[in-house]
């Protein structure tokens, strides 16, 4: 028999919580989006067809979808790890931003290193700077009792202000008024997937998708192994499930808060690899573009499991890429309208994620009783 869920979804089989409930939430979000589309005078079925085709209908579209999904995988995993320790880390935006600073410092000042060394150094820089930015809120939570939600959101604004100062006054490209650094050396670029696969005889269409995508998948597998197949992961989850019971069992909840937030910050910092080394090839303002906040919805929809996070990330990547195609093909569906659709998905996957629990519970009871 399948396990039965606890908490707000108590009484439901685990398969219903992990698969059926997110599916119903997604259908509800699309149903409301369809009503909005009807109200502006468009055919919702045509809109869905264009949206799906724009995200998966041709090789280039798939590449763009997976490129966007890569960012969501990193930020979704960051939020998920913190969730398992009972923490609501909404500082992924700032941690990714500062992680980008670590990447830029490596690529700009260690550019004498060959590709085989500068890429691992940049990965380490992203992890260290992202983790360092998460450390202070974690320490304040663990040692001073400061609420992690308040401190992490404050650190998002601090990170944005610090980056503006650095890019305008310290790291700006000489002779330029643009708030950006000089370009990275070509050997510090992450190769796009079409070039990497082309080198082994596999031809795919050109797109921004780069080697940070397989790294994101490896990180998802690593998080799964860490959380469910290591003692450190067990201690982290135990502290999140019941701090009192964890303490009784010899586990220090404050220590687990620090561990969870350091891992979470490092994962968020990896997002900068995709954007800076894969596409921008320099440090620019606002390259995070809200991915850190959207990672919260990705983690919620993925139920905090790495496999669910990857699937939810592909969904959000499809909404980004398919939405861009939709805005081009149907002028009355503006980019703002696409943002509304994304917002509805976030609403039903987040704030209203347990809305269908009573109906599901009643339906399952009737089925058992019948």
Write a concise synopsis of the structure shown.
The protein has 370 residues and is an all-alpha fold. Helices cover 72% and strands 0% of the residues.
CATH class identity: Mainly Alpha
Q: Classify the fold: give the CATH topology.
A: ABC transporter involved in vitamin B12 uptake, BtuC
CATH architecture: Orthogonal Bundle
Describe the biggest sheet? none
Please give the share of residues in helix. Answer: over 70%
List the helices and strands in order.
HHHHHHHHHHHHHHHH
Q: Write down the domain tally.
A: 1
Helix-strand category: mainly alpha
Question: How far apart are the termini?
Answer: 18 Å
Which radius of gyration do the C-alpha atoms yield?
Answer: 22 Å
Task: Catalogue the unreliable spans.
Answer: none
Shape: globular
Structure annotation, total helices: 16
Number of strands: 0
Estimate the strand proportion.
under 5%
Mean pLDDT score, rounded? Answer: 90
């Amino acid at each position: 028999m399948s396990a039965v869920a606890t908490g707000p979804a108590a009484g439901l089989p685990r398969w219903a919580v992990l698969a059926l409930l997110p599916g119903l939430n997604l259908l509800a979000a699309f149903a409301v989006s369809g009503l909005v589309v009807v109200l502006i005078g468009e055919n919702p079925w045509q809109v869905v067809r264009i949206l799906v085709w724009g995200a998966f209908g041709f090789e280039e579209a798939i590449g763009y979808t997976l490129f966007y999904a890569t960012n969501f995988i990193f930020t979704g995993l960051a939020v998920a790890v913190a969730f398992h320790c009972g923490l609501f880390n909404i500082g992924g935006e700032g941690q990714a931003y500062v992680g980008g600073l670590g990447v830029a410092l490596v690529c700009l000042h260690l550019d004498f290193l060959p590709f085989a060394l500068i890429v691992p150094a940049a990965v380490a820089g992203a992890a260290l700077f992202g983790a360092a930015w998460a450390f202070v809120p974690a320490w304040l939570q663990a040692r001073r009792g400061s609420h992690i939600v308040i401190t992490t959101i404050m650190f998002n604004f601090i990170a944005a202000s610090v980056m503006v100062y650095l890019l305008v006054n310290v790291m700006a490209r000489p002779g330029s008024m643009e708030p950006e650094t000089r370009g990275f050396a070509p050997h510090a670029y992450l190769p796009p997937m079409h070039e990497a696969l082309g080198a082994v005889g596999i031809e795919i269409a050109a797109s921004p998708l780069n080697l940070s995508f397989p790294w994101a998948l490896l990180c998802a597998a690593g998080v799964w192994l860490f959380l469910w197949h290591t003692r450190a992961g067990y201690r982290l989850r135990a502290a999140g499930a019941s701090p009192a019971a964890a303490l009784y069992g010899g586990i220090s909840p404050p220590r687990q808060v620090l561990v969870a937030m350091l891992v979470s910050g490092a994962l968020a910092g990896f997002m900068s690899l995709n954007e800076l080394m894969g596409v921008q090839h320099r440090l620019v303002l606002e390259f995070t573009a809200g991915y850190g906040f959207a990672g919260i919805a990705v983690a919620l929809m993925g139920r905090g499991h790495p496999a669910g996070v990857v699937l939810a990330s592909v969904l959000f990547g499809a909404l980004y890429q398919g939405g861009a195609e939709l805005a081009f093909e149907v002028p009355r569906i503006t980019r703002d309208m696409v943002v509304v659709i994304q917002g509805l998905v976030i609403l039903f996957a987040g704030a209203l994620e347990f809305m269908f629990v009573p109906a599901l519970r009643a339906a399952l009871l009737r089925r058992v009783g019948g």
